[in-house]
């Protein structure tokens, strides 16, 4: 008798820079409003409030370099983020040991159906319709921490059609990566294959079919995406 009643789908995966290997993805966690200026532009207090999280699906991560404009929306926004891939996990991980669990880093986008997210917020409903749609997380190659260390400073930027829209520094995160991992692991059991998106700087805005998005994080890499 077959073990599965239907054929299992291939695991979602991110290419690793330089060697052709793949990093299999288990879960995707995203922290909201983790740069003060972005919190302000979204109409929220930039002070250090307790962190909050939402999730995307593993197969939302898309390394293709193409972003199909999604249905059901007239307002899709770009958000550039540092992605962090875990090689191990656990529960109640202390911040001082958190980076031991990191395999590597990548440049990613948290594409957002802002109109649908805004309506969900207004009604007090979950955000998945605005955040977790197909191919909503374009991502670049994963760069191992063994090669670049653990970046906690450096320019993060995004341009659309050559015009810079988002620009900040990793050092402006309200909650640092070790704090993010520690807080997440107090509420979820983290594991190898988990990916964390760590927030976006100010300057989020709309894209349209035909736009070319270019994003970069100092010391990590670049990502180019065409909206179709």
UniProtKB/TrEMBL annotation:
User: What GO molecular function annotations does the UniProt record carry, in alphabetical order?
Assistant: acetylpyruvate hydrolase activity; metal ion binding
Keywords, in A-Z order: Hydrolase, Metal-binding, Pyruvate
Q: Does the keyword Hydrolase apply?
A: yes
Provenance organism:
Rhodovulum euryhalinum
Q: Which InterPro entries match?
A: Fumarylacetoacetase-like_C (IPR011234), Fumarylacetoacetase_C_sf (IPR036663)
Question: Locate the Fumarylacetoacetase-like C-terminal domain: which residues?
Answer: 28-228
Q: Which Pfam families match?
A: FAA_hydrolase
Q: Tell me the protein's name.
A: Fumarylpyruvate hydrolase
